[in-house]
Amino acid sequence: MDLDNLDFIKLSQTIYNDYIDNWKKNNKKVYGYYCSYIPEEVLYAMEILPFRIRGTGCNDTALADSILSHFNCSFVRCTLNLVMEGKYDFLDGMVFSNSCDHVRRQYDIWNHKIMKGKDFPLIFLSIPHKITEAGLAWLKEEYSLLIKKLEDDQKKAFDEDNLIDIINIFNKNKQLLKSVLKFKTAKEPKLKGSEFCKIMIANSSIPKEDSNNELEKVIETLKERENLKDYKARFMLVGSYVDNPDFYKIFEDVGGLIVTDSLCYGLRYFWNEIKVSKEPLLEVINSYYNKISCPRMMDQHQQRLDFIKGQIKESNIDGVILERMEFCDLHGVDNMLLQHELEDIGIPVLSLDREYLLSDIARFKTRAEAFIEQILVS
Amino acid sequence: MITIGIDVGSLTTKAVVYDGKILGTFISRSGHQFERAGIDVFNKVLNIAGVKKEDIDYILSTGYGRYSLPFTNDKVTEITAHARGVNFFYPNVRTIIDIGGQDSKAMRVQNGQVKDFMMNDKCAAGTGRFIEVMAKALSVNSLDEMGKLSLQSKNPAQISSMCTVFAESEVISLFAEKKYSKVDIIAGIHNSIAKRIGGLVRRLGKIEEDVAFVGGVAKNIGVKKALENELKVKIVSPEGDYPQLTGALGAAIIAYERANKK
Question: ipTM surpassing 0.85, yes or no?
């Protein structure tokens, strides 16, 4: 059986699924969240399934555009549209954060418009933008407030000992994702970037124990697979949020393989395991605070650059694709810096601006193809 | 060895017959059927060059519609093709600006090979289509005429909108205000394009000379002058229709090299 036939992979095509259905039938709650800085382990320890909001199935933003302007991020507009269509009606609560302004303001929209007058928990986790002692103290307090709100909603106390078990489940998930990644980054890869994207989406859509079982099946399937052939260049993808396998296919269709990335829906999600100690909550806080950062974090550009350079070397990268969602100011600035820094050390770079909804694919393909031609000549 | 390069662009389709030198060229509107436009241009350029179909050793397509032609040996992107075409005329060029019908590109090149490139993103501003819309709004018949008229301006208007739709409204407002003459508005339009393209070129880093300007819009002398003022460099463009033909020429040259390697 090949990958696309696995039911697990098919989970990437929909938002709601049978796993969520079963979870809710057991009177357990599902909370939505946008940003990879939201500590899933803490929610899970409170028997809440964290579900990462994504834009799967969005075709237009007509409903969202009645609230947001065209100068808002198209990913956020798409997800709000899906919310207004009722695709996220299964959620029992939301945890927002100050990731970027477009996501941060979703809290206001849910508060004053979408959930106005409804008994629907909306929690805001304020994460510092700088890594300092004071910032860590602030974040500890924010986690306390988050836990207090979850306790109020669940009507039960947070059990820190239970958090250790949850950390182990999530760490295993990260280890399995790293094992899957190796099939993509190997010198003779077996896994395409678009397929890995589907795995990441499916992984974010169901309880982690189930996902761990499914990932083991994925690994067994990949072991039996033949190596990929007929590709011309190995790329690393860096930039704004990507949850659309078709975006990867733009490059695959013209002979490029995206073998690694620095994305919040990619490697950065599972790169750092959480240390297991007698202070599990503090370990969770430290792990999320110090993880491979997104450009929302100030003074961490060098850390991001070093991570990218490490991936370029380890995964034999021929070129880096820097992509930015239109109106994403965070990646707009970071990508520009990265472009010059990578070109200075002789790494070919392709910079792309895009909307969440893919259109005008031909123009993207021309760039991808020209980038491959450029790499092959040099 | 005789080869043909066919550049199927969004507005025009171009073809060049080549055997180490240029044997014939032809340009036609692309319309909405790229395949038909490609076949038409192919047949006409053969006639012009006095070459029979069976004498052609290699056909290479390029441009937006490069995948639409079923009779070619292979395809190459217009970015690679323009770099080779410009190299034919100007071997020392290090920076190429290509403004076509629906997009604009800046390329850094060396010996006809692309080292880096930037393309404008999902926007008609700074493209041939932008000038066409403006020409229509100002009742000017051709890009050439836009260029010649702009050179008469002594007080270019400021066009601040970069969006084609908003810029058209802005141009009509300027006209209604009677503050600027037609030639000043046209010069302002060219300056706004030059600013846009200047940003694209600077994203490649320090501007390296020689700088060449190609694509259909390069036939507009006003845009070329505005670009020279914006970038503070002298810009070269091939004579006649050749700014529009460098993509097809580059494809024909690459085809010639491949045919000789066979």
Answer: no
